[in-house]
Specification:
Elements: E1 4-11, E2 19-25, E3 31-34, H1 37-49, H2 60-64, H3 66-71
Antiparallel strand pairs: 1-2, 2-3
Length: 73
């Protein structure tokens, strides 16, 4: 499972669309900046579209983490 961190550095109080920041894949450390909500949406689509994890075949380990899967048998 891939996890993404979104950091918002600026918000324009005059615009609900005015945000800027970075999205990062927490495993590969790949980063992409965005300058508004549309850019954030496009960056998320790009990250998910290039994600090699097959979400259709998610296992218990993928969904809950290794420690939880081992603890639950």
């Amino acid at each position: 499972m891939n996890s993404y961190v979104i950091r918002v550095y600026r918000k324009d109080p005059a615009s609900t669309n005015g945000v800027a920041g970075i999205i990062e894949n927490s495993i590969t450390r790949r980063q992409q900046s965005f300058h508004d909500l549309a850019g954030l949406h496009a960056a998320i689509e790009d990250f998910i579209g290039t994600d090699t994890f097959d979400h259709a075949e998610a296992s218990q380990i993928d969904m809950y983490g290794y420690e939880e899967a081992v603890a639950n048998g």
